[in-house]
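Revision sheet: structure tokens.
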Amino acid sequence: MQKLILIKYGELTTKKDNRNLFINMLTNNINNSLLNINHKIIKNRVRMFIEVDENDLNVVIEKLKKIFGIYSIVICEKVDNNIDDIGAKVVSILKNMQFKTFKVETNRSDKTFPMNSLEISRKIGAYVLKNINCSVDVHNPEVLVSLELREDATYIYLNEIKASGGYPVGVQGKGILMLSGGIDSPVAGYLAMKRGITVNGLYFESPPHTSLQAKEKVIKLSTVLNEYSGNFKLHVVPFTKLQEEIYKNVPDDYVITIMRRMMYRIAEGYAKKKGFKVIVNGESVGQVASQTLSSMMAINSVTNFPVIRPVCCLDKLEIIDIAKKINTYETSILPYEDCCTIFVPKHPVINPVIQKCIDFEQRLDYKELVEECINNIEVINVNTLSKNDLL
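Predicted:
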């Protein structure tokens, strides 16, 4: 038996000339998410409808909830634009339900229909009252019956499932996410995808100082983020040699600042090489020494490439709430250190001086080391990983 799902676009409806571009991208993303599920999509500028087998309905709903560009999802019934047919279908939907109060709300986009929205709601309400022992409550009904009268048909539904909103992933181009194993950067990646950016991860590993478990942790985070985009790739930077040179030649209090400056140089160089339009990271103002405004200015001064920080002005509890919502939190708190947390000095500088950074960097041949890092990046396509790869 086939079920019909109605998709509401939400923010996409604010687009005018570009709306079709957004809707087509959303369609592609849905098709990719439902690749192995039998389905049919019918779309227009206002609504999208997806036909699926009843047995697949719950799986499809869970997948759709994670697709950006969808404001809400409803399971609906479709009938002809005939008041008697509408009334009969509403009664058949409600007759086996337990409730005492209800309300009918109508959205009539088909202005040729001979009754207005209020008249339709009253007429359908009368059908219900005649056939079911209940009463109308316009303020706090137990059951809300929603009707959408469009030119092709009338769509009836009871419950609206909130989805992720935002823009379809891909409409804004590609961004490279500086992905650590912490709580903040996966949330930053999620929020960037919500604004339509195709996000890939850039992970800095420093074996033997960082463990294989730390890398596997980031791969696992990547698989979670992949559920929201369907095309997530993780780019792994071999950072050991450069990081060791920094520790040998830079005073302890400036190690983190110089290391972050090198990471930005690598991210910029790789982004330009691979066609990414923006660097994304999980920096949050004041959270650690490298994220004071003075530190951010000193670190960011090495690049003119666009950098966005989606969690920049969120406090830690707000970020944790999002991490729990998107299912990255439990993985992020696993106790495996990445290269940003190993060898952290007791007293890192919180107000670094840019000229001092430049002077310290002259002690090592960083340009060649940065280029070596960029040229030896390993790319992991998360879509091709099996469950055994994640153990």
